[in-house]
Amino acid sequence: MVAWTDKAKSSLRNIFNYIKEDSPFYAKEVKKKFIFESKKLSDFLKLGRIVPEVEDDNIRELFIYSYRMIYQIVDNNVFILTIIHSIQEFSNL
Questions:
Q1: Could you tell me the pLDDT band of residue 89, with boundaries at 50, 70 and 90?
Q2: Sorting pLDDT into bands at 50, 70 and 90, what band is 42?
Q3: Neighbour count for residue 70 (Cβ, 10 Å)
């Protein structure tokens, strides 16, 4: 199972709205890509790399375009925690 936290949903919505200002089409494509990649995690829990700032095998990230989608593995379930731009400073979740 893959579930999105409220924070992750809000992050995706903010990214979508920001991109939509310049390109509604591209905004939809970016949103689809995040959803598509997150669905893969139900079968491949450890698809992403360990987040270096955390060094916890259960906190991982996928790079999608210029963003880091941070997720946590709990009992064979995946929780999308947040999405941050790759140039943003990471702070513990």
A1: confident
A2: very high
A3: 25
For 24-85, the three-class secondary structure string (H helix, E strand, C coil) is HHHHHHHHHHHHHHHHHCCCCCCCCEECCCCCCCCEEEEEECCEEEEEEEECCEEEEEEEEE
28 backbone dihedrals φ, ψ, rounded to 5° = -65, -40
| DSSP state at residue 91 | -
Q: Among positive and negative, which fits the CA dihedral 49, 53, 59, 64?
A: negative
Question: At 36, phi and psi to the nearest 5?
Answer: -60, -50
Q: Spell out the domains of the chain, with CATH numbers in brackets.
A: 2-85 (3.30.2310.20)
Instruction: For 64-87, write each residue's pLDDT tens digit.
Output: 999 999 999 999 999 999 999 999
- What average pLDDT does the chain have? 95
Instruction: Check if the beta carbon of residue 69 is closer than 8 Å to that of residue 38.
Output: yes
